[in-house]
TrEMBL record:
GO MF term (any one): actin binding
Localization per Swiss-Prot or TrEMBL: Cytoplasm, Myofibril, Sarcomere, Z line
Protein species of origin: Struthidea cinerea
Keyword field contains rRNA processing: no
GO cellular component: axon; plasma membrane; Z disc
PANTHER family linked to this entry: BASIGIN RELATED, PALLADIN
Heme keyword on record: no
Stretches assigned to the Ig-like domain: 10-101, 111-201
InterPro entries: Ig-like_dom (IPR007110), Ig-like_dom_sf (IPR036179), Ig-like_fold (IPR013783), Ig_I-set (IPR013098), Ig_sub (IPR003599), Ig_sub2 (IPR003598)
Name under which the protein is recorded: PALLD protein
Amino acid sequence: EPIQERFFRPHFLQAPGDLTVQEGKLCRMDCKASVSGLPTPDLSWQLNGRPIRPDSSHKMLVRENGVHSLIIEPVTSRDAGIYTCIASNRAGENSFSLELTVAAKEVQKAPVFIEKLQNTGVTEGFPVRLECRISGEPSPQIFWKKENESLTYNTDRVSMHQDNYGYICLLIQGATKEDAGWYTVSAKNEAGIVSCTARLDVYTQWQQPPQQTKPKKVRPSASRYAALCDQGLDIKAAFQPEANPVHLTMQPGLVESDDL
């Protein structure tokens, strides 16, 4: 008697769950179907009920171990939706579904300084802050260095701070002569890196920080006497009677000018 061939409906040994993939990245869906008899099932994929055809960004692969893969690269917003994988043979079919969510592409901006470090002077024993402000997407990592030595951890006296608005601060409590030198702050993210350097000077108690002298402004005045006084001239001493310089002596017969 002829042997009757038995067929069994396929079932899945492995199936993925819902996925979230960032736009522009690669998405891979792996599954494995098995049957106890022949024939080996055929697999097909659908997106929102419509068949998926292989193209430049959608590929369907089968490995020797029976794992079927749908690979999408690059993922776009049009790829979001409900995916259904159907395994079928002569005995019947089976299927599973999952939802693919496509996240918006992450905006990346290299770090930039909104406010740079400034050269700073402080009297020995007093606190000092080295401050700057940085922007970047995603939020950059911050690194501090003094000369060529990295500052990697906080101490009771020297601490590094950062807030959610991009403000960066190195705080030194009770500055010493050893704290003087060049400080560098660097900001790094996936889009780039930027650095800024400034000098810290520490003065002893008897020293005074150098001050920039600004030229004294002379306010206009109707009185020439007042204007000359504003310029620092000792007018009274210059016109003492005992000085009696020749060019200031009034000569008889000369008419006094209103300007004088």
